[in-house]
Specification:
single chain; alpha/beta; seven-stranded parallel beta sheet; six-stranded parallel beta sheet; 12 helices; 13 strands
């Protein structure tokens, strides 16, 4: 007799006390299941990344734990916990186990857990952010295949990810859904008030680059566009809000060389959840100058605060932004094209 119920769902991935967009996604997913009458429980890490390999300052948040708190049981470097986590999930008798996947580092642990819970009668579904990482390493394909072959069904949030998935494995079932809007950062504040809090001129034309800074996100391109922009429009002001996972000194050197320090507010730390509303409320438009991508939750935060997005035509980013309506889409890697899009945005008053 199978005593598992499809109303019972186990979620596996980052969650409190871990921080970042993927943890937010898992927690919002649990809220969504609860609102639809499903019973769900989150299983998260005791160790997510080894500190030696983690590029940021901290993996953890200082916020308050949710209720009920996630079960911390999975150490990515300890195979014993992979087996004990599978047993803990099986004891909760979920009909479905949902994992969030974004890089091959997690494939051994997730693949082991997935195979074990399937043997206990649970179906396994994975929400795939990236089939393969932006920065490739030897073994990425083999590790990813090991995990993906242990899965019953797949959820993707862009056509690009679906194409990547179908090139690597022969998935039995793939569901393409829209990336959800993040509404967990509170309500916006008046624009002038937000700018006063951040020390930004209240009459500025404010661009926002938000999130962890990595090479593939193209901040260098946006900085290169700034002299052209500020010459044409002295009111232009750029806010860079996010922790640097690259060498911050390189970007500061570029800023100094370009002479744009007075036109830029640099918030080079992780933006706490309670400050996200202020940062987005201060902006006229959010800019994503990515050089490569699959999808990004930053646009979904922007839309929650009624901020348009200028993004590049890479991966699935253009699927999120409707050109001329919710923002503008430009070619990647071109400071000139990016500057032209920003000028058009303000000249044509597209943010109104």
């Amino acid at each position: 007799m199978n005593d598992k119920s499809d109303l019972d769902i186990a979620l596996v991935g980052p969650a409190f006390p871990y921080r970042g967009g993927i943890a937010h996604f898992i927690e919002r997913l649990q809220d969504g299941f609860s609102a639809r009458g499903f019973r769900s429980r989150i299983f998260t890490f005791t160790r997510q990344y080894p500190e030696l390999l983690f590029p940021g300052k901290s993996q953890l948040t200082s916020g308050e734990p949710p209720e009920p708190p996630p079960t911390r049981c999975l150490d990515t470097l300890n195979p014993v916990t992979w087996l004990s986590t599978a047993r803990a999930i099986a004891r909760s008798a979920p009909g479905v186990v949902v994992l969030k996947y974004w890089m091959p580092f997690f494939a051994p642990a997730f693949g082991t857990v997935a195979r074990r819970v399937r043997k206990r009668g649970s179906r396994v579904v994975v929400v795939v952010d990236n089939v393969l990482p932006h920065e490739r390493r030897p073994g990425d394909v083999a590790l990813t295949k090991y995990f993906l072959k242990a899965v019953d069904g797949f959820v993707v949030m862009s056509s690009k990810v679906r194409e990547d998935l179908e090139m690597l494995v022969s998935p039995a079932e793939v569901r393409l859904v829209e990336h959800p809007t993040y509404d967990n950062f509170g309500v916006g504040v008046p624009r002038q008030e937000a700018r006063m809090q951040l020390g930004i001129p209240v009459d500025a034309h404010v661009l926002l680059f938000f999130g962890f800074v990595r090479k593939y996100k193209g901040l260098e391109t946006l900085l290169s566009a700034m002299p052209t922009l500020t010459e044409a429009d002295p009111k232009i002001h750029l806010v860079v809000a996010g922790e640097f996972y690259d060498d911050e000194r390189e970007y500061r050197g570029q800023i100094a060389k370009l002479g744009i320090s007075s036109k830029l507010t640099l918030m080079s730390e992780y933006i706490a959840d309670e400050d996200v509303a202020t940062v987005f409320s201060a902006a006229d438009v959010v800019v994503q100058p990515y050089l490569s991508a699959t999808q990004s939750g930053v646009a979904q935060i922007a839309f929650n605060f009624d901020r348009p997005v200028i993004t590049t035509d890479v991966g699935g980013l253009a699927e999120t932004v409707t050109h001329g309506t919710t923002g503008l889409v430009v070619a990647p890697g071109s400071p000139g094209a990016l500057a032209e899009a920003v000028r058009s945005f303000f000249d044509e008053d597209l943010g109104k």
